[in-house]
Amino acid sequence: MPQSNIDTSSQFKHDMLADFDADEFARQEFVKSFKLHLATTISPGNKAVYETKVVPQIKEETGKEPQDRFQIKKKMEQQQPYQFWSSLQRSSQEMMWKSVQLPVERQWKELLDASSEASSDYSTLELDPDLEIPKYHSAVDIHCMPGAYHTEQTENDVAAGAIYDRAVYIYAMGRMGPYNDDIGASTVAWLKTNFPDLKPKRILDLGCSVGHSTVPYLDAYPDAEVYGIDVGAPVLRYAHARAESMGKKIHFSQQNAEKTNFPDGHFDLIVSHILVHETSKKAFKNIAKECHRLLSKGGIMAHTETPPYKDMPLFDEFMMDWDTYYNNEPFWGGSHLIEPKQVAEEFGFDVDSVFEAMAPSAFEAGEKDQTKLLQCGDFAGAGVWYVYGMQK
Ligand SMILES: C[S@@+](CC[C@H](N)C(=O)[O-])C[C@H]1O[C@@H](n2cnc3c(N)ncnc32)[C@H](O)[C@@H]1O
Known about the structure:
Elements: H1 22-42, H2 44-62, H3 69-76, H4 80-106, H5 108-116, E1 124-126, H6 135-138, H7 159-171, H8 182-194, E2 202-206, H9 215-220, E3 225-230, H10 233-245, E4 251-254, E5 267-273, H11 281-294, E6 295-305, H12 314-320, H13 322-326, H14 332-335, H15 340-347, E7 350-360, H16 364-368, E8 384-391
Parallel strand pairs: 1-4, 2-3, 2-5, 3-4, 5-6
Antiparallel strand pairs: 6-8, 7-8
Helix pairs in contact: 1-4, 2-3, 3-12, 4-7, 7-10
This protein binds S-adenosylmethionine.
S-adenosylmethionine binds next to helix 8 and strand 3.
């Protein structure tokens, strides 16, 4: 890609990352600052309104403390400060996509060329033009991303990948590190500490998208073969070209994690990072079943997401649930209620092996960040990631 000297605030510049002119960069920086301002200055007002108005109102009406997030939602939605914050939060999301779409559109041709000219010296790519995109992706522009991960506007499109790569950086306000790899790096660091004897021969990353979280597995397990699957062809083309430019050997293929073409017992470690909340309840069950088929005896399945609702104060649960209603994330709430032990029982995993942990952010800045609070749409993980899983 043609490069400018404009500082991209530390996002790593691999060959596929879209460049920005000064105006585009200023727009993106504005969105990043706007999101930060909403998180640190505006959002805390919600709690004040909750404590001073909503809790007393609920107590007066019911004689009890608030009982669940739905009751809180009903009352908070009548409060102007919440309405104001919520509409700004939604606007910031729409502005974010626009701010990354514009430079990608301007450099579309170069990006298509860069992807189609990418070598396969390290990574491989297998696409399946007949793969049916699951309805939970085709029916909604997930997290307001126009066209989501799979839409192709032209042959061999990569725009969705280019848009996603930059948008994640802005969304997380840079707190996922220069490679946007904090979720994978944090998960693998946790696995290395807690399963020191694990020496996986083959690793599968489900819903790998552009490969942000996949790469850390290569670095942590240099002797393993690493595979990444996704339903979206544009993100996979981008992932392949990105990995090539970084000299990383990953086998990417376009497959639905609910039913793959890998043989039984092929993997010793299967991971996913922020995939589960984007799949339906039924799909997640299929994925768990498929993981059981694909794992070798004693192999590990691990999923990483933002923390579950069960141990959260009700107000935080309510705030986290905003995405379910206003950020086109219909499965967000349900995914935060998954009980790993039930999954293990239902799909034949070793129930005693179930683990649930808060993995500390591998990216140091995440730990130190002043915005270390959990709130809706917090994909910087507030300094921790929820890792849960089990062994076959
Ligand atoms: C939020 S992105 C995850 C990004 C990536 N794992 C990371 O950590 O950067 C979710 C990805 O999961 C993919 N996905 C959703 N459902 C899937 C399924 N059933 N099979 C394979 N991929 C799926 C989407 O296309 C999308 O690229």
